[in-house]
Every structure is written in structure tokens, then in C-alpha cells.
Design goal:
- The chain is elongated and about 75 Å long.
- The protein is built from 6 helices and 6 strands, in the order E-E-H-H-H-H-H-E-E-H-E-E.
- The chain has 2 domains: about 90 residues, no CATH class; about 55 residues, no CATH class.
- With about 180 residues, the chain is an alpha+beta fold.
- About 35% of the residues lie in helices and about 15% in strands.
- Strands 4-3-5-6 form a 4-stranded antiparallel sheet.
- Helix 1 crosses helix 4, helix 2 crosses helix 4 and helix 4 packs across helix 5.
Length: about 180
């Protein structure tokens, strides 16, 4: 029997950071460890990435890579929480980024009554131009529509915005969309 030789100048690898909330999650890299600690302090993050309630950043959301989008194994959950953490940090640095804003919005409103998500589309007549999955509540729908309209504006004639196919906002007829402050995306 031989003893395992450790090079005298090499330190052993640090132990993984294990989540206190999601016991099956272990992070080995510093970036992943920061995300796990953050999610443990903000347990709503674990709820968001493990349920389908948030259409924008939850389980199954197109925000994530295809390999981790619908998977429930520990590596996929970890990848989603790392991405969510990155988006929330980005929302602080770039408040006009719609992609980052929708992650921060989900974190802030996930437990609000009526929280759900839907497919918003900007339309010119019958033609749909831009689509994006966004979360909203009945109380925040106007704010979400305003953010979406600012993100989609490109100076072209538009007629209305739909949510899951139903019109939720109509622009004044025969006019180009009024350009609100442009949101980055």
C-alpha cells in the first residue's frame, strides 16, 4: 500500500462551499461560492431557479443555457443561481438593462400576490416585431409595459403591445411610438 504523495509546494484544494438552504448544492470555484452564499442570504433566489413561477428567470426560462434550462440536478441549479446572481449584480451597475432589470424584478416581487409571467410582443398591425418573456403582477403591469416599450422602441411605426396574444396597450393611431428613455438590453 502506498501513501498518496502531495507535492510539498502545493496546497490542498479548498473544501467546497455548501449551501445551507439547498443541501445538495456544493460550489468549488470562488464565483460559484459567492453565488451560493448570496442565494443562501436571499432564499427567494433558490425558489426562483427551482420553480417555473418566474417565466423570465425561473426553471425553464430561455435566459439559461439549454443544458441547464429544465434540469433539476445540482449542477444545473447551481448554474441557474450563478446566472441569476450575475444578472442581479448587473442590475445595480446598469439599471437600464432590461435583462438585468427583469432578474431584479423577480427577486423583488416573487412573493407578491398575482406574480406571474407572460410573453410581451410589440406589434405593427398584425406583424409582431419584438418578443420577450417578462414577469409582472397586476399592480406592476404598467411599469413592465413601460420598460418593455422603452426596450423595443426603434423609431418604426407600431400599433400595440400584446401580452400572451391579448392587447394590453395601444399606441395613438398613425403615429410612431414616442421614444421614452431607451433601456439597454
Amino acid at each position: 500500500m502506498t501513501k498518496r504523495m502531495i507535492h510539498p509546494y502545493m496546497a490542498p484544494p479548498p473544501p467546497p462551499v455548501k449551501s445551507r438552504v439547498m443541501r445538495f448544492i456544493a460550489a468549488w470555484t470562488p464565483e460559484n461560492a459567492r453565488a451560493v452564499r448570496w442565494a443562501d442570504r436571499n432564499s427567494v433566489a433558490w425558489e426562483i431557479v427551482t420553480t417555473e413561477r418566474s417565466r423570465a428567470v425561473g426553471l425553464g426560462a430561455p435566459e439559461y443555457d439549454e443544458m441547464v434550462r429544465l434540469s433539476t440536478d445540482s449542477e444545473a441549479v447551481l448554474a441557474r443561481v450563478v446566472r441569476l446572481h450575475g444578472l442581479v449584480l448587473e442590475a445595480r451597475q446598469r439599471p437600464n438593462s432590461l435583462y438585468a432589470w427583469r432578474a431584479a424584478f423577480a427577486m423583488a416581487h416573487f412573493h407578491d400576490p398575482g406574480f406571474t409571467g407572460g410573453l410581451f410582443a410589440q406589434c405593427a398591425g398584425r406583424k409582431e416585431r419584438f418578443h420577450l418573456l417578462l414577469d409582472y403582477t397586476p399592480q406592476t403591469l404598467v411599469e413592465v409595459i413601460t420598460r418593455f416599450a422603452a426596450w423595443t422602441y426603434h423609431g418604426s411605426p407600431v400599433t400595440h403591445i400584446t401580452l400572451n396574444g391579448a392587447t394590453v396597450y395601444e399606441y395613438p393611431s398613425h403615429r410612431t411610438a414616442v421614444r421614452p428613455k431607451r433601456a439597454e438590453g
